[in-house]
Amino acid sequence: MARFCSLYSSSSGNSTYIGTSKSGILIDAGVSARRLKTALCEREIDPNSIQGILVTHEHSDHINGIRVFASSHNIPVYATKGTLQALEEADILNGRFPVFEIEAGKDFEVGDMLIRAFRTPHDVNESCGYRIELPDERTAAVATDIGHMTNEIMSSLIGCDLVMLESNHDIGMLENG
């Protein structure tokens, strides 16, 4: 049976756990490695069971813990080309963990989960959300920091059993204080 836990969701840090009996992933790691490990352990999730960190975008509240957490547990990081470029520029990618470039609309696997990234509108290089097909024939999706719904997001969410949407990015509000 699949497990879905929102570990953190705020402007001070974001991270979501999705796991099965065989594998687990984090979508974003926006708090310190210590806080991530504590949150996982409080939910009886072994940090060593994490087989991938999927990054939605490069804002600090989504990446703060990646370098240390991925390095200490040798966890692969998955992100779009634009996000990987930003992570490289921010010195997050230190060569101590595997890095994989993913592309919106193309499937990839982490453990026993089939994942597809989809584009989301945000003020970064190449933001994305994720649709995850689980081995128990359920489907989950996570999209963060979206300011408006797009056709691509909507089509990625159709048929999902569980959806986590964070829609706190509003250009108009940002421009007007």
Give the topology, please.
Elements: E1 3-10, E2 13-19, E3 24-27, H1 33-42, E4 50-54, H2 60-63, H3 66-73, E5 77-80, H4 81-89, E6 99-102, E7 107-110, E8 113-119, E9 128-133, E10 139-143, H5 151-157, E11 162-165, H6 171-175
Parallel strand pairs: 3-4, 4-5, 5-6, 10-11
Antiparallel strand pairs: 1-2, 2-3, 7-8, 8-9, 9-10
Describe the structure in your own words.
The chain is α/β, with parallel strands linked by helices and 177 residues long. It has 6 helices and 11 strands. The strands form 2 sheets. The chain has a 6-stranded mixed sheet with strand order 1-2-3-4-5-6. A hairpin with a 4-residue loop joins β2 and β3. α1 (33-42) crosses α3 (66-73). It is globular. The mean pLDDT is 93.
